[in-house]
Amino acid sequence: MMMRKEGKTGSMRGPAYVGLSRKGVLHLCVVYTVWSTTYLAMRIGVSPTGFPPFFLGMLRMPAAALILLAIARLQGLPMRPTRKEWLSLVIAGNLFWLGGNGLILWAEQYAASGFACLMASSAPIWATIIELCLYRKRPSLPLVACLLVGFGGVAVLSASSLGALKGLPVVLALIVGPLSWAAGSVFQTQRPVRLAPAALSGYHHLMAFFGFLIVSLALAEPMPHPDASAWIAWAYLVIFASVITFTSFLTALRLLPISITMTYAYVNPVLALLLGRLLLGEPITVWTATGAGFVILGVFGIFRVKHWAGPREHSGGPAASRIDA
């Protein structure tokens, strides 16, 4: 893969090209493939023979936290947040996982996995809106156009699914979930925690465990009796989604331009739709395809507009791109 190299001022200084990091591309391919499958695993995990949604999150969080923090310890990485950083970890961890992932888990009791992934892919749109409001910036006309296209896709998906899903609450959960993830991303950017990615992610999972526990108890979720497929889905979410792929995502952010890394936000929904269709027989309607096209086009446009405006290359925390399942 090749990309144009920009000058220090951000303007193009000729058609010079540099090769992309092979290691970075390899990790990005892991993100492409594995994160596309996690919505399928979530759907299986909260099936009638599986777990209640917040109970599943409650079981997943400490397992992933234990593995991630053990990795950080074995690598000799810093693991002691300051008092102020603990508050940031509590807020960001619950915005990411309880609000972002937990609401998607609840909605997937009734919504198809591919559809849930499509709605979750709107997170960059919400993140852009939050940043514009936070920094009181006036958006450019191309950015406004991309936001309108993306919101149009969300509107098409929501309106076409109101009758098929269990009413408005499911659609709202699929809208608020990406909004929560985006809010967590912006908050973490404003309140950074000086820890390595493994330790940072481990503490996020650990803090979210307490949030899932409180919500599960408040909703009086019943004690589950999951079958083997649900346990396999839980293990898959812990090992592949929370540990391996999230690490690959952070590595790709370090080694590749953010405009390249974020392409997974419009690759994952397509693969998730196809996997849901092939493995679970989930329908793909004309409205679903139309809404998907608008959302993916809007997200793509936002990344392109931000890229040409001079994006910040950053790493160390989850980017506001999509709900990492």
Which SSEs are present, and which pair or pack?
Elements: E1 2-6, E2 12-19, H1 22-45, H2 53-74, H3 83-107, H4 113-120, H5 123-135, H6 141-161, H7 168-190, H8 197-218, H9 228-255, H10 258-261, H11 264-280, H12 286-308
Helix pairs in contact: 1-4, 1-9, 1-11, 2-3, 2-8, 2-9, 3-7, 3-8, 4-11, 5-7, 6-12, 11-12
Describe the structure.
The model is unreliable at 1-18 and 311-322 (pLDDT under 50). With 325 residues, the protein is mainly alpha-helical. The chain contains twelve helices and two strands. A hairpin with a 5-residue loop joins strand 1 (2-6) and strand 2 (12-19). Helices cover 71% and strands 4% of the residues. The chain is globular. It has one domain (22-308). The longest helix is centred in the last third of the chain and has 28 residues, at 228-255. It has helices at residues 22-45, 53-74, 83-107, 113-120, 123-135, 141-161, 168-190, 197-218, 228-255, 258-261, 264-280, 286-308; strands spanning 2-6, 12-19.
Descriptive terms for the model:
325 residues, mainly alpha, 12 helices, 2 strands, 71% helix, 4% strand
Summarize the structure.
The two termini are 27 Å apart.
